[in-house]
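Morning run. Coffee first, then this:
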Amino acid sequence: MKTQYPTLSRLLLAVGIGAALGIVSAAFAQVANVSTTAASTFVGLNVTTTAQNASPTTAFSNDGQSMLLIKTGATATSATLVTQATQMSQSGYGLVTLSNQTVFVPANSYMLVGPFPQGRWNTQQGTVIVSFTSVVAVSVSIVSVAQ
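And here it is:
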């Protein structure tokens, strides 16, 4: 896949990790119901938060340094990240058309996605919206990574 937007490769970052997960569930009303864990350093990722189930449409607060950690059980899922900006000017590319991005998460896997630049992803409430094709045994956690 040819990337039209240079930071897209950083946006869809997938890593296999063994971490205890925190889970977020929020309604489509774009109100975040998230436990955000601040990570001051990244020698390794070891996140421990309270677990909750993901909902078909999940929203989380985004400070521009947020990473979405998705864990699946026996069922795979696709997570569609809903873009709020339809176009963005990018140096060297000019005006770039933006669209939602979908990430496939295989069964029994972990996926780390982000960060989410606020100008593209944040709603007016300061949240990012993620829609899942299946939430059976799917959990998510938000990790805020200091720059």
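The helical segments are 8-11, 118-121. Good start to the day.
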